From TrEMBL:
The lineage of its organism: Bacteria, Pseudomonadati, Pseudomonadota, Gammaproteobacteria, Moraxellales. The chain crosses the membrane at residues 6-27, 48-69, 75-93, 102-118. Residues 2-116 form the EamA domain. Coiled coil: none annotated. InterPro entries: EamA_dom, EmrE-like. It comes from the Bacteria. This is EamA-like transporter family protein. GO terms for cellular component: membrane. It holds the Pfam family EamA. Keywords: Membrane, Transmembrane, Transmembrane helix. The keyword Membrane applies.
Amino acid sequence: MNALVVMVWMFTIAVDTVGQLAFKALAIKGLEYEGKARWLAFAKMPMLWFGVTCYLIEFVVWLAFLSLVPLSDGVMLGCINIVVIMIAGRLFFKEQLTKERLIGVLFISAGVAVIGLGL
Protein backbone atom coordinates (compact mmCIF):
# COMPACT_ATOMS: atom_id res chain seq x y z
CA MET A 1 0.00 0.00 0.00
CA ASN A 2 1.26 3.45 -0.78
CA ALA A 3 1.28 6.37 1.66
CA LEU A 4 -1.90 7.95 0.28
CA VAL A 5 -3.88 4.73 0.71
CA VAL A 6 -2.64 4.34 4.29
CA MET A 7 -3.48 7.96 5.16
CA VAL A 8 -6.99 7.73 3.71
CA TRP A 9 -7.54 4.38 5.44
CA MET A 10 -6.39 5.75 8.82
CA PHE A 11 -8.63 8.78 8.39
CA THR A 12 -11.67 6.58 7.77
CA ILE A 13 -10.85 4.61 10.90
CA ALA A 14 -10.48 7.77 12.98
CA VAL A 15 -13.68 9.42 11.76
CA ASP A 16 -15.71 6.21 12.08
CA THR A 17 -14.43 5.66 15.62
CA VAL A 18 -15.20 9.22 16.69
CA GLY A 19 -18.69 8.89 15.21
CA GLN A 20 -19.30 5.64 17.08
CA LEU A 21 -18.09 7.21 20.34
CA ALA A 22 -20.43 10.16 19.78
CA PHE A 23 -23.39 7.84 19.24
CA LYS A 24 -22.52 5.78 22.32
CA ALA A 25 -22.28 8.93 24.46
CA LEU A 26 -25.62 10.04 23.03
CA ALA A 27 -27.20 6.66 23.79
CA ILE A 28 -26.01 6.84 27.40
CA LYS A 29 -27.35 10.38 27.77
CA GLY A 30 -30.64 9.24 26.23
CA LEU A 31 -31.23 6.80 29.08
CA GLU A 32 -32.58 9.78 31.03
CA TYR A 33 -35.61 9.84 28.72
CA GLU A 34 -38.22 7.30 27.62
CA GLY A 35 -40.18 6.69 24.45
CA LYS A 36 -40.87 9.62 22.17
CA ALA A 37 -39.23 12.03 24.62
CA ARG A 38 -35.93 10.21 24.11
CA TRP A 39 -36.02 10.72 20.33
CA LEU A 40 -37.02 14.37 20.70
CA ALA A 41 -34.18 14.90 23.17
CA PHE A 42 -31.73 13.19 20.79
CA ALA A 43 -32.71 15.55 17.99
CA LYS A 44 -31.77 18.53 20.17
CA MET A 45 -28.41 17.15 21.31
CA PRO A 46 -25.32 18.39 19.45
CA MET A 47 -23.70 14.97 19.93
CA LEU A 48 -26.21 13.45 17.49
CA TRP A 49 -25.34 15.95 14.79
CA PHE A 50 -21.63 15.58 15.49
CA GLY A 51 -21.94 11.81 15.04
CA VAL A 52 -23.97 12.21 11.84
CA THR A 53 -21.38 14.66 10.51
CA CYS A 54 -18.60 12.18 11.28
CA TYR A 55 -20.51 9.50 9.37
CA LEU A 56 -21.05 11.77 6.37
CA ILE A 57 -17.35 12.63 6.29
CA GLU A 58 -16.44 8.97 6.69
CA PHE A 59 -18.77 8.04 3.83
CA VAL A 60 -17.06 10.46 1.44
CA VAL A 61 -13.57 9.42 2.52
CA TRP A 62 -14.54 5.73 2.31
CA LEU A 63 -15.59 6.26 -1.30
CA ALA A 64 -12.20 7.86 -1.96
CA PHE A 65 -10.50 4.90 -0.28
CA LEU A 66 -12.44 2.41 -2.40
CA SER A 67 -11.31 4.27 -5.50
CA LEU A 68 -7.70 3.51 -4.50
CA VAL A 69 -7.94 -0.19 -3.61
CA PRO A 70 -9.78 -3.31 -4.81
CA LEU A 71 -13.14 -3.76 -3.08
CA SER A 72 -12.10 -7.04 -1.43
CA ASP A 73 -9.02 -5.39 0.09
CA GLY A 74 -10.96 -2.31 1.17
CA VAL A 75 -13.63 -4.28 2.96
CA MET A 76 -11.03 -6.46 4.70
CA LEU A 77 -9.03 -3.41 5.78
CA GLY A 78 -12.25 -1.80 6.97
CA CYS A 79 -12.62 -4.65 9.48
CA ILE A 80 -9.93 -3.05 11.62
CA ASN A 81 -12.59 -0.48 12.58
CA ILE A 82 -14.17 -3.19 14.74
CA VAL A 83 -10.93 -3.54 16.69
CA VAL A 84 -10.34 0.19 17.09
CA ILE A 85 -13.93 0.85 18.17
CA MET A 86 -13.77 -2.02 20.67
CA ILE A 87 -10.60 -0.56 22.20
CA ALA A 88 -12.11 2.94 22.22
CA GLY A 89 -15.19 1.56 23.99
CA ARG A 90 -12.93 0.13 26.65
CA LEU A 91 -10.96 3.37 27.05
CA PHE A 92 -13.87 5.81 27.05
CA PHE A 93 -16.78 3.78 28.41
CA LYS A 94 -15.05 1.07 30.48
CA GLU A 95 -16.65 -1.68 28.37
CA GLN A 96 -15.46 -5.23 28.97
CA LEU A 97 -12.95 -6.95 26.70
CA THR A 98 -13.64 -10.63 27.26
CA LYS A 99 -11.26 -13.42 26.31
CA GLU A 100 -13.46 -14.28 23.33
CA ARG A 101 -13.42 -10.68 22.08
CA LEU A 102 -9.65 -10.50 22.42
CA ILE A 103 -9.28 -13.71 20.40
CA GLY A 104 -11.54 -12.18 17.76
CA VAL A 105 -9.37 -9.06 17.73
CA LEU A 106 -6.31 -11.22 17.09
CA PHE A 107 -7.99 -12.95 14.14
CA ILE A 108 -9.19 -9.66 12.65
CA SER A 109 -5.78 -8.06 13.13
CA ALA A 110 -4.03 -11.03 11.53
CA GLY A 111 -6.35 -10.87 8.52
CA VAL A 112 -5.79 -7.15 8.09
CA ALA A 113 -2.02 -7.63 8.40
CA VAL A 114 -2.06 -10.32 5.70
CA ILE A 115 -4.00 -8.03 3.34
CA GLY A 116 -1.93 -4.97 4.24
CA LEU A 117 1.35 -6.75 3.66
CA GLY A 118 0.08 -8.24 0.44
CA LEU A 119 0.70 -11.83 1.56
